[in-house]
Amino acid sequence: MTMAEITTIAALYLLWKSQMRRRAKRCRFWVHPILQKCIQLGEFHHLLQELRLDDSRFQRYFRLTGAQFEDLLARVGARISRQDTNYRRSISAAERLSICLRYLATGDSFRTIANSFRVGVSTVSLIVPAVVTAIWDCLVEEFMAVPTTEEWRSIAEGFEERWNFPLCCGAVDGKHVVLKAPAHSGSQYHNYKGTFSIVLLAVVDSRYCFRVIDVGGYGRTSDGGILANSAFGRALRSGTLQLPADRLLPGADHRGPQPHVFVADEAFPLRRNLMRPFPGRTLTRDRRIYNYRLSRARLVVENAFGILASQWRMYRRAMELQPDIAEKCVKATCVLHNFLRKTTPAPAMRGSISDGVVEPLPGLGRLAANNSAREAIRVRETFAAYFSAEGTVPWQANV
């Protein structure tokens, strides 16, 4: 054998050995030894089973009671289950649901969740989008279907009884859901607060339940622009929302039939079915009372956002998710919010302020001019006159 042949064989051997070393380093473990102990030491197999013995701690951990967890698992279990293979046993539907709920309840990073449950980070990154999608698909028809005409009428009765605003079918507002800046997105998600976000536009009823939501609008877009581009906004403009027919205000037959309306803040346009405050600082008494009554009814959507962020702490952090996955998580928490409110007994709420003390509204400042239709202006003036006459309540005198 010549020297050249020996040199060639030696070079091939070294190349083969180098490739084997890199392959061994890359595929060192089929499953990491730490993850192999998930049944012995994982959070689901130990802590969760202990929490089942204390329902209050279980609820603080998952935001659901044990009974609600089992109810939700029964609804989504078939969608999130996976088959065992010859190589490994699949993660159970209950553990998948636990991983997802824990992420929504804390907003912790996928790595933190993975270490707690002793599963892979990539596994968590696959479980969360799949489970939130299943939650939305399985619950939306029962807990957040678009209201029918009769349901809109029932919502209006709730606003009249609890918030003293007749013919109101919901409160509308937008919430910025903060994200870590998406790659290559430019300024699309950059909002006026200096953060990056997608927008949750919501219509909330008198009992703090979300009735219609639109998620995914760019953070740079105004609330009015989000409304205009949403399916709800288009249906409201075209009159296809199946709102009840115009009705007389209670005790004010002489004012004629009035439309059913939604209440919103000054970021939204004035329309026949969408009421916003009167602009300016120097207002007549009728207009100041109208602004107060509208703001009081509109607070339900602000309160609903507060409850949502308190239950699901992912809203307290900048989510490190792609916008499409963040949108799925937001939709899941909204439908879970309704699921919890409709399956948890709540104390009765007073329909009016009984102590007669009302804080005056702060000045709203100068608002942008709005070329509203004459009909919308007429409806707002009618409500303003009604609240100071037939629709007055004793405690509004302090406004």
Q: Layout of SSEs?
A:
Blueprint: H1 3-26, H2 33-36, H3 38-41, H4 47-51, H5 55-62, H6 66-80, H7 93-106, H8 110-117, H9 121-143, H10 149-163, E1 168-179, E2 196-204, E3 210-218, H11 223-229, H12 231-238, E4 247-248, E5 257-258, E6 261-263, E7 274-275, H13 285-311, H14 323-343, H15 374-387
Parallel strand pairs: 1-6, 6-7
Antiparallel strand pairs: 1-2, 2-3, 4-5
Mean pLDDT: 86
Number of domains: 2
Judged by helices, strands and strand pairing, the structural class is alpha/beta
Measured by DSSP, the beta-strand proportion falls in: 5-15%
Helix content: 40-55%
The backbone outline, from C-alpha atoms, is: elongated
Largest sheet: 5 strands, mixed
What's the β-strand tally? 7
